[in-house]
Amino acid sequence: MVLLDNDGFLLALTKMFQNNRSSGSVSIVLKKYNGRTTRQAPQQPLDNLCLIRASDNKTKLSTIISNKEVTKFQMSYATLLRGNMDSLKKHDKSKEQKGRKRKDL
After folding, report:
1. In whole angstroms, what separates CA 67 from the centre of its chain?
2. Residue 72: helix, strand or coil by DSSP?
3. Rounded to whole angstroms, how far apart are CA atoms 92 and 21?
4. CA angle at residue 99 from 96 to 105, to 5 degrees?
5. Alpha-carbon span 80 to 67, nearest angstrom
6. Which one is predicted more confidently, 59 or 85?
7. What's the pTM?
8. CB under 8 Å to 76, separation ≥6 — which residues?
9. In angstroms, rounded to a whole number, what is the distance separating the alpha carbons of residues 105 and 103?
């Protein structure tokens, strides 16, 4: 897994979205990060941090965001997601409703 700075992460994530546009998927995970890499006794973190991971079948990316950089990163991240969500498949509700009717009988 590659730990990148925030701008490098956004650039690499853009490339990852473009490579997986026609087929494939990108999964993104956000979680609270306390700065530890091993299990130790619980401590109070000095700063609230957020760990963001992105992966497809080939590559893995990650970045750590401090609470001071959250608004800037969130604006850039939202713009990136809006620009790359145009190739999503529509959810077919008719198959789901037929399955529900059969279960109810």
Report:
1. 18
2. helix
3. 20
4. 145
5. 20
6. 59
7. 0.75
8. 6, 10
9. 6
Give the containing element (helix H, strand E) for 29: strand 27-33
Residue 49 pairs with which residues in a beta bridge?
A: 33, 66
If phi > 0 it is left, if psi is from -120 to 50 it is alpha, else beta; for residue 67 that is: alpha
Helices (H), the chain: 6-19, 70-84, 93-104
**pLDDT tens track for 15-57:** 999 998 888 889 999 999 887 767 776 666 568 899 999 999 8
CA distance 86 to 89: 9
* 3 contacts 64 by C-beta, under 8 angstroms: yes
Per the listing, tokens 């077919």 go with 92
